[in-house]
């Protein structure tokens, strides 16, 4: 079963690979945290000599990941970092969210994208819609209209593409590099090889033929996994004497948190929820989806502590593993 997922797609924009942070692994998340904390420390040390963009964080991509990141950073700057770096005064960092389309959260209903924009702007996030990033350098982001934003932290949340493993298979792939699979999520011509999750071009209803592709989200991967596990288990138990039902995706809705007390939730064919009720729904679902009671209890206590104290977990700067200097 191939489930190698997706990797960051830079769409050929110069400088992204060299100067922007991707957000596909825990290691990248730790790198971002270390870089931001280091930049704030440098800014405080340099005082008025600090370069303009040292504490500016540009997030590229206004989908759920970009919106969640922008809200998270705005809160981090407004509370814990304000407390940790009193020397920075009014030069405390700023967050810029750049989106190529004319609205945020394009996969959600327009009113939810608008809600997210208003909410982020209230949190002092500089939201730039209909704006393309043309180039990223070590200390600047050049936009499509040739203006620049000074920034030493750029997070690329503008998109993903299927793992390069897909291309290595030498089979049909979609424009986004996803492996075309048959109605049982098998590699065509290879009935014993299944492909699922972000790597696969799973269709919402595989029996229909050309239906929409399942979005590259966790429920798509989980449902594909369950489906294939059942097929393998049947094969182990007694062969494939019958034709199983084709894979069918059940859309369970989408949600994105914007910050403290704010989230947008879109249920399939159901109501759209924003604000505090949406945020509580986001918290509850993410708690329930954690594995094991111990994890749920730990996370609940940590969240409650952060909520009441406005504090965040340890602010460690960790260096990537490097060979020892001899
Ligand atoms: C920042 C971020 C936030 C997200 N938030 C949400 C969210 O809130 N809700 C949601 O539903 N979805 C979210 N997603 C999407 C979700 O994470 C993916 O859709 C889901 O993880 C896909 O599962 P997968 O098993 O296909 O791939 P992955 O979870 O990416 O797992 C693939 C694994 O394969 C490994 N691998 C890759 N290549 C190889 C190889 N050649 N050999 C061996 N191993 C390999 C990788 O290291 C990785 O561990 C988010 C994604 C990102 C990046």
- Helix fraction, binned, reads 25-40%
Sheet with most strands: strand arrangement = 4-3-2-8
Radius of gyration: 22 Å
Total E-strand runs: 16
Instruction: Estimate the global geometry from the Cα principal axes.
Output: globular
Reported for the largest beta sheet, the result is: 4 strands, parallel
What low-confidence regions span 5 or more consecutive residues with pLDDT below 50?
Answer: none
Q: Estimate the mean pLDDT confidence.
A: 90
**Secondary-structure element pattern, one letter each:** EHHEHEHEEEEEEHEEEEHEEEHH
The rounded distance between the terminal residues' Cα atoms is 44 Å
Structural class, judged by helices and strands?
Answer: alpha/beta
Q: Beta fraction of the residues?
A: 15-25%
Task: Summarize the topology.
Layout: E1 6-8, H1 16-19, H2 26-46, E2 56-60, H3 64-84, E3 94-98, H4 110-122, E4 125-128, E5 133-136, E6 140-143, E7 148-150, E8 153-156, E9 160-162, H5 165-168, E10 179-180, E11 186-187, E12 190-194, E13 200-201, H6 218-238, E14 254-259, E15 262-266, E16 272-274, H7 275-289, H8 293-309
Flavin-adenine dinucleotide binds next to helix 6.
Molecular structure report:
The two termini are 44 Å apart. Strands 4-3-2-8 form a 4-stranded parallel β-sheet. It is α/β, with parallel strands linked by helices. A hairpin with a 2-residue loop joins β11 and β12. It has a domain at 174-238. It contains 8 helices and 16 strands. Helix content is 36%, strand content 18%. The structure holds flavin-adenine dinucleotide (FAD). The site of flavin-adenine dinucleotide (FAD) has 17 residues, from α6. Flavin-adenine dinucleotide is lined by residues 3-6, 23-24, 65, 163, 165, 197-199, 216-219, 221.
